[in-house]
Known about the structure:
Blueprint: H1 2-16, E1 19-20, E2 33-38, E3 41-42, E4 47-51, E5 64-69, H2 74-80, E6 82-83, E7 87-97, E8 103-104, E9 109-111, E10 122-131, E11 137-140, E12 142-152, E13 159-167, E14 172-179, H3 185-193
Parallel strand pairs: 1-6
Antiparallel strand pairs: 2-3, 2-14, 4-5, 5-7, 7-8, 7-10, 9-12, 10-11, 12-13, 13-14
Amino acid sequence: MARNLKGVTLALAGWFALGCGSDAAPAGNVQQGLSGTTFGKPFTARDTLLVHPESWKSADAGSTAILLSDTPSLCNQITSGKTTAPGSLVIISLQENAADGSVVDLELGSFVTHGQGTASAKYGEVFVSGVDAQCGFDKLSSDQSSIQVTSVGPKSRPVSASINVHFTSGDSLQGNIAASIPCDEAAVDAYLNRNPKCD
Length: 199
């Protein structure tokens, strides 16, 4: 549990580290079948990335993360170090471990919020962070979640999943998502691990 809570903090801190600023046109991702609210407002994913962090402190190297932003051009935001405000970011962390504890490619099935890093575990968690128009940061913590990987390609790309998550704020997200578009992994690692700051 301590590792999971630390992971939530670090994952959210990574997004908080991006400064506020304008951004370019969206990357052309497919429309996501996700509905619900974050911070009391409807959430619509305008850009989606599928990444496999190598030095993310919230999960082991080779794990998978789906990033969904309600602002466009998320990869440009990551590589430039500036994020569009206001906005929300949903991070779906997925990690599967073999019987020897090593991280392996994702397989179909349910991913749960406990057992991260343990033998034969399928760990999944949903994090949400937000920035307001004045670059004030906030986060949502889940109290119930269901994550089902419904299709997955070689080396965990592409990935489709169904999620149903409820947050302590009363917000919730549910629906089907698909992700395949990558971003520079070194930039993603830095983005997920930097301390909060806002230019």
